[in-house]
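TA notes, week 10

Several of you asked for a full example with nothing omitted. So below is the full record: structure tokens for the whole chain, then the designed sequence directly under it. When grading your own attempts, check the secondary structure regions first.
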């Protein structure tokens, strides 16, 4: 009887003792999805329900503009990215090897920097219209017609120029994986260049192209800098105006819920569109595609078509900003630039370190846990990447401000000392928003890297007396440090470029490079914004070079 009681007590202690890895994984996952839960709660329980007013006035316009931008940017980016990927993969022409790298460079340029540069280049006082007036003797704007720059079409062009590398990257990988035999058979059957693309290459690469277009449209929905500068009223600008101008957090949460629903619908549509598509390799030893040599006008035409996206998406914004920065070198020493750089490095670096460490803990904790809850939380925790920065700003700031004030009031009542707002009054909320927004990047890198580690290695470490933490530290981390380093860099660069969440969550008088660029550009001081814009672009180039090297 005593032995039975001992066994029962031992089994109960094993049952009640929490697994620290599983508990930590659940807590991290809960922290990541908490802002989305807060948005849902505020939207369903607003202090002042202005939903009928929004539906009757501004919401249809916001939604229509957002849908037009999504379709326009998604279609244009898919066409440009797919076409350039097809040319550099299937043909040889002057500059093709360089263009495989250069076509990724627009990813280093935040879309709002491209918008500022395009307006500065094409506006009435810009070099293009000035040259036209000098060449034809025109004296004012009424002597000639020029398209309106700050318009919806210009926003579509700028966003597509900045985002088409997402499609290019995935489409190029899909074309490279196809068998060269397929195209040889098509040529033998009389299919010309366009028929081979339309009937063979495009259907086989459609899943990758659809995934890239979905990413482009999600980024379009979350954009604020471009649409605000071009005065295009979208759902994201509606969040800012409802919250900051009307002081209605509940209404902003309701619009944020519409934005989140639209993004999730895009993700679901992309998955459903390729649900029944199946693509298989027909042989174990597949011969790669042999590029066809182009000559004459065809070769130079392909070079021009692939160079154009690079010129519009990278050379134009960098050239305009570099011109302004070099014309007045004293702008590099203006007060506030160094502090903005320091703030950017601080919050971006902290966000990258915290995000990657949390992702490693979560992924490893799920692997070490036998319970179902952590495994269910793992895919849900990636939803933060689908949430635009403005949406996360609403879901973080309002609940955190309530918690901050409650803690401050409690400390003041107990000790008589007023600690101030140490959550929303510091950069804590900003770092937390970056962690939630880009957690999926770090989690995906950690999960993929750990999958490549043979299970026998950590098992051997455990059999030699290493704890679970020791196996992670001494086996996994040394083997996956390359992927961890890449995740750190990508999260850091995305944090540097993030604008909507930074505008909403930064403390008073706390500037980063992105907010400094936005503040100067919104006052039409493009020259003053150029040094900070160039620094953001330099940081972005580092990530692009890493991606280009890993995708070779």
């Amino acid at each position: 009887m005593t032995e039975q009681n001992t066994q029962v007590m031992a089994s109960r202690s094993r049952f009640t003792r929490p697994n620290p890895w599983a508990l930590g994984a659940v807590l991290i996952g809960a922290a990541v999805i908490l802002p989305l839960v807060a948005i849902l709660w505020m939207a369903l329980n607003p202090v002042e329900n202005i939903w009928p007013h929004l539906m009757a006035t501004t919401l249809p316009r916001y939604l229509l503009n957002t849908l037009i931008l999504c379709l326009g940017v998604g279609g244009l980016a898919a066409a440009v990215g797919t076409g350039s990927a097809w040319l550099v993969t299937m043909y040889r022409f002057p500059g093709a090897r360089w263009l495989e790298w250069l076509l990724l460079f627009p990813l280093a340029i935040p879309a709002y920097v491209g918008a500022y540069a395009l307006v500065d280049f094409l506006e009435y006082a810009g070099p293009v219209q000035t040259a036209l007036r000098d060449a034809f003797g025109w004296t004012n704007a009424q002597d000639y017609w020029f398209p309106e720059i700050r318009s919806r079409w210009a926003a579509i062009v700028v966003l597509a120029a900045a985002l088409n590398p997402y499609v290019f990257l995935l489409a190029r990988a899909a074309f490279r994986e196809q068998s060269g035999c397929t195209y040889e058979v098509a040529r033998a059957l009389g299919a010309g260049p366009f028929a081979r693309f339309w009937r063979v290459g495009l259907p086989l690469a459609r899943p990758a192209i659809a995934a890239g277009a979905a990413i482009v449209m999600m980024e379009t929905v979350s954009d604020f800098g471009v649409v605000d500068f071009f005065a295009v009223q979208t759902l994201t600008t509606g969040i800012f105006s409802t919250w900051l101008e009307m002081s209605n957090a509940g209404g902003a949460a309701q619009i944020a819920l519409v934005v989140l629903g639209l993004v999730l619908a895009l993700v679901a549509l992309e998955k459903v569109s390729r649900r029944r598509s199946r693509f298989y390799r027909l042989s174990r030893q597949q011969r790669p595609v042999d590029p066809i040599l182009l000559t004459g006008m065809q070769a130079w035409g392909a070079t021009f078509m692939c160079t154009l996206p690079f010129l519009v998406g990278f050379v134009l914004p960098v050239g305009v900003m570099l011109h302004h920065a070099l014309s007045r070198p004293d702008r590099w020493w203006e007060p506030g630039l160094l502090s903005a750089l320091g703030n950017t490095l601080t919050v971006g670096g902290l966000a990258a370190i915290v995000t990657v460490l949390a992702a490693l803990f979560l992924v490893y904790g799920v692997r070490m846990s036998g319970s179902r809850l952590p495994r269910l939380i793992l895919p849900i925790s990636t939803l933060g990447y689908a949430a635009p920065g403005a949406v996360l700003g609403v879901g973080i700031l309002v609940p955190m401000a309530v918690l901050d004030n409650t803690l401050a009031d409690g400390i003041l009542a107990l000790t008589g000392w007023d600690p101030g707002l140490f959550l929303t009054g510091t950069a804590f909320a900003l770092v937390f928003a970056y962690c939630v927004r880009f957690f999926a990047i770090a989690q995906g890198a950690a999960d993929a890297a750990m999958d490549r580690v043979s299970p026998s290695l950590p098992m051997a470490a455990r059999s030699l007396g290493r704890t679970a933490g020791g196996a992670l530290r001494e086996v996994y981390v040394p083997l996956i440090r390359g992927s961890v380093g890449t995740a750190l860099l990508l999260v850091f660069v995305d944090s540097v470029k993030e604008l909507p969440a930074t505008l909403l969550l930064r403390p008073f008088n706390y500037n980063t490079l992105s907010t400094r660029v936005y503040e100067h550009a919104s006052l039409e001081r493009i020259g003053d914004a150029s040094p900070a814009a160039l620094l953001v672009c330099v940081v972005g180039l580092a990530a692009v070079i890493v991606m280009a090297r890993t995708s070779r």
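The CA atoms of residues 129 and 146 lie 8 Å apart. Use that as a sanity check on your answer.
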